[in-house]
Amino acid sequence: MKKVYKIIPLFVFLIIWQAFTSILPEKQFYFSSPLKVAYSFFVFFVNQNGLYHSLITFSETILGFLLGNCTGITIGLFLWFSKRAANISSPYLVALGALPIFALAPIMIIWFGIGIWSKIMMAALSTVIIAIAQSYQGATNADERYIRLMKVFKASNFRIFRTIIFPSSLIWVFNSMKLNIGSALLGAFIGEFIAAEAGIGYIIVKASGLFNMGLVFTGCIVLMLIALMLYGVIFLFEKRFLRWQRAS
C-alpha cells in the first residue's frame, strides 16, 4: 500500500499537466503534454535509435562512475595512513571540488576528442572528489577504542586498516557512490552537450534546437531511468555488503 501512495503525486502531476495543456493548447509549444511526451518516447525508441543513444550515455556514465569512484575511494581510504598527506592535499581537493565541471569540458574535448573518452573522463572527474572526501571521512570516523585496542596488541597499520577502518568506512563509501550517480550522469551529459555525435545529451540539444519539447522531455526521462537503474544496483550491493559487515 505504501508503494501506491508514492506514485499518487506523479499521477496528480500528470493529470494537472495534461489538463493545463488541453485547456490552453498553445502552451504545448512550451510545455508539451504527457500524451505527446509518451508518443515521443515511443517514436524515439522505435524509429530514432533511442536504445543506441541510451546505451551510449549509459556506457559513458557507468565507465566514468567506476573510474572516478574506484580512484577516489582508493585515494581517500589510503590517506588514512598519512595525516600529513591528508593535510597537504586538503586545500587542493577543496579547490578542485569547487571548480565547476562545465569549465573542464573544453579541456577534456581537446585532450580526448569528441568521442566517448572525453565523456568518460568528464563523468570520472565529476565523481572523484566526492569519493575521496567521503571515503576519507569514513576512515577517520572509525571507532578509536577498537584502534587503540589493536595497537595494544601491536597490530600493524595495515592490519588495523583491514580489520577496522575498511569495514567501518563501507557505509560512507556506499553513500559517496549514491551521491555520485547524479554527478557521473551530469558529467557525461555535459560532455555530450558540448560536443557529441550520439547520446541523450546530443538528442536533447538537437531536439531543443528544433523546439521539439516532447523529445526534450523524453531525453530527460531516459536520464532519470538511467539514474534509477544505477541507484538500484548500488542499493543491492550496499544491502549485501552491509549485511556482511553486520554478520562479521
Model description:
By secondary structure, this protein is mainly α. The chain has one domain: MetI-like (MetI-like fold, Orthogonal Bundle). Helices cover 86% and strands 0% of the residues. It has 11 helices and no strands. Helix 4 runs parallel beside helix 7, helix 7 runs antiparallel to helix 9 and helix 9 runs parallel beside helix 10. The radius of gyration is 22 Å and the shape is elongated. 35% of the residues are buried.
Provide a brief overview of the structure.
By secondary structure, the chain is mainly α. Helices cover 86% and strands 0% of the residues.
List how many beta strands DSSP finds.
0
- What is the CATH level 1 assignment? Mainly Alpha
* Mean pLDDT metric: 87
Which radius of gyration do the C-alpha atoms yield?
22 Å
Q: Quote the distance from N terminus to C terminus.
A: 35 Å
Q: Helix and strand string, N-terminal first? A: HHHHHHHHHHH
Question: What's the multimeric state?
Answer: single chain
Strand content: under 5%
CATH architect. name: Orthogonal Bundle
Largest sheet: none
Count the DSSP helices.
Answer: 11
Structural class: mainly alpha
Poorly predicted regions: none
How does the overall form come out from the CA principal axes? Answer: elongated
Number of structural domains: 1
**The CATH homology group name:** MetI-like
What level of helicity do the residues show? over 70%
Using the coordinates shown, work out and report the CATH topology. MetI-like fold
